[in-house]
Amino acid sequence: MFYARINKIKVFNNREGFLGLFNRAELRIYSYATPVGADLRVSPPTLSDLMALPDDASRKQRLLDAVLSEADSFAQSYSIDIDGVRDNQTLLFGETGLLLYRSDAIPDALRLQLWVIESDEDVRRWALDADKIMDSDAFKGLVAAATAALAVTNPILTASIGVGGVLVNLLRGKLREKKDDLVGYWLCDLNRAEHYPHGTRDRQDVSDTTGNIQVDYTLFGYDKEME
Question: Could you give the angle at the alpha carbon of 166 between the alpha carbons of 163 and 167, nearest 5°?
Fold first, then answer.
């Protein structure tokens, strides 16, 4: 048995334009987890995977496929709406927390993602085509970074963080069109050997990529043979 949950989220700036007593925002939270293991879904490719591909075109296509896969995961994410959120407010989710992932087995690795958006519209299924991705500055930067990393001996950096960054940048552009904003984006890549060898982990006040939210999260699990 294994589960990963968010215990609380602190929001420093709700991105609402009004001041004083009227500075309250409606936030929508999207959350999901991607397990990695022998019998589980594999996360976006690592740079070492890219090294095995024969040319730049095939590596570019591999990165594009990873971004589209990430967009599909976001489209299937769980969402929750919270009204009246003020600046510097802590959002609590009760004794059970906000469940991101649950399984019978402890995964070899786990990627946790959390999006906090100041919007009353569901943006999970906004139009996103391959041409728009490839034309974006974020994707061009990802391709350049991945290409440069191929020159490194035994690269250990993964392209997955860059893949998530492309999606974040595209989503920010969509939100700006509708005068909404990305309040926070939290990404956490964990592997069992390094981060939860015994199936448990508990962390508080973990900053997101924007510096605007902090997250408390818990992992808990045990192998069936230990029951």
Answer: 95
Q: Is 43 exposed, middle or buried (0-12, 13-18, 19+ CB in 10 A)?
A: buried
Per residue, what are the HEC states of 15-54?
A: CCCCCHHHCCEEEEEEEEEEEECCCCCCCCCEHHHHHCCC
**Cα gap 69→66, rounded to integer Å:** 5
Q: 181, 185, 192, 195: which is closest to 215 by C-alpha?
A: 185
* Beta-bridge partners for 117: 28, 182
5-14, 67-76, 92-101: the lowest-pLDDT one: 67-76
CA-nearest of 144, 142, 136 to 159 is 142
The pLDDT confidence band at residue 31, using thresholds 50, 70 and 90, is: very high
- Nearest to residue 216, comparing CAs of 225, 224, 206? 206
Task: Let me know: does 157 contact 149? Beta carbons within 8 Å.
Answer: yes
Instruction: Please give the average per-residue pLDDT across 187-204, as a whole number.
Output: 92
Residue ranges covered by each domain of the chain = 2-226
Integer Rg of the chain from CA: 18
Find the distance separating the first CA and the last CA of the chain, reported in whole Å: 10
Rounded to whole angstroms, how far apart are CA atoms 64 and 132? 11
